[in-house]
Every structure is written in structure tokens, then in C-alpha cells.
Specification:
The chain is built from four helices and five strands; from the N terminus they run ααααβββββ. It is of the alpha+beta class. A five-stranded antiparallel sheet has the order 1-2-3-4-5, with helices on one face. A hairpin with a 5-residue loop joins β4 and β5. The chain starts with a helix and ends in a 13-residue tail after the last strand.
């Protein structure tokens, strides 16, 4: 009986060890502060009218694929609603992004409330580690106009789904 209990205990410990190893090798700590600083720099540049400096914060892939198109979207928003006068982060969380080679990288989704002279928007930036020398860069951007609900997006986008909602 003692030997059987010992075998079961060893089996359980080994099983927990294997499961723990599988789980903890997939868990990575991601410091969101550098990503938040990227968003702060981006909107500060836009507020100061430094569009070229703001666009230098996007990834090379983003600029290569949609850079000119996205510059036109931002210019039209500035024409219609004025330049950015204020911005406020409203939340952030880490999101996994799978690259073409199936490598998974941790990115940060940051939500902002943006105020222009006559227009307000909710915007989401996907900020990821970047290979260009800067530690982080914007890989995706989504803009939602509060007046019309019109959406613009480019680059990496994330669909958020609510799985469980509780209210007290």
C-alpha cells in the first residue's frame, strides 16, 4: 500500500512538473512602459504639428505597405477636425501577435481618447518590439470617429472579444 501511494505521489509530481514547465515556458513578462512612451511620443508629435517625426515611429513594414495612404487619412482628419489638441490613454494590455514565420511576439494594445479642435476620436495603437534599432514601434493603428462612428485602420489590428461579463 505504501509503495502504491509513493508511485502515485511521484506520478502526480512529475505530471505537475511537466504541465508547469509547458505553462511557464509560454509565459513572458512584458513591460508596457516603453510601448506607452511610444504612444505618448506619437501623439505629442502630432499635437506639435510634427507629422514626419510622428510617422518615423511606425514600423518599416507599416510605412512600406500603407504609409502614404495612412498619411492621407491623418491629413484628412486634420483638415476636417483640426490638429490634435489633447490625448489621454484610456487603457492598455498585452496582445500576442503571430508573424508570418509563426513566431509569436508580445505587443501592447493602447487605447486613447483624442481631441482635435472640432472632432474627437477613439484610437488604438498596436505597439510592438521593432528590429530597426528603436525598442518599440507602431505596427497598427485604428481610428474611430465619435461623431459618425466611421472607422479607419491600417497595419496590425486586434479584435477584442468579451468572454465573461459580470456585474454586481
Amino acid at each position: 500500500m505504501r509503495q502504491r501511494n509513493l508511485v502515485i505521489a511521484v506520478f502526480v509530481v512529475l505530471l505537475l512538473g511537466v504541465l508547469g514547465f509547458e505553462f511557464f515556458t509560454r509565459v513572458h513578462y512584458v513591460d508596457p512602459k516603453p510601448a506607452l512612451a511610444v504612444g505618448e511620443d506619437y501623439f505629442s508629435d502630432l499635437r506639435q504639428g510634427q507629422t514626419d517625426d510622428a510617422f518615423a515611429i511606425y514600423t518599416d513594414g507599416f510605412l512600406r505597405k500603407v504609409g502614404e495612404e495612412w498619411r492621407n487619412v491623418i491629413a484628412r482628419l486634420d483638415e476636417q477636425g483640426g490638429s490634435v489638441t489633447d490625448f489621454k490613454p484610456t487603457g492598455s494590455h498585452v496582445v500576442p501577435v503571430t508573424l508570418r514565420d509563426q513566431t509569436e511576439i508580445p505587443c501592447v494594445l493602447i487605447r486613447y481618447q483624442i481631441t482635435r479642435k472640432t472632432l474627437s476620436t477613439d484610437e488604438r495603437l498596436i505597439v510592438c518590439p521593432h528590429q530597426r534599432g528603436a525598442a518599440w514601434a507602431i505596427a497598427g493603428h485604428e481610428i474611430i470617429r465619435k461623431d459618425s462612428g466611421q472607422r479607419f485602420s491600417a497595419g496590425i489590428t486586434v479584435k477584442e472579444k468579451t468572454i465573461v461579463v459580470t456585474s454586481w
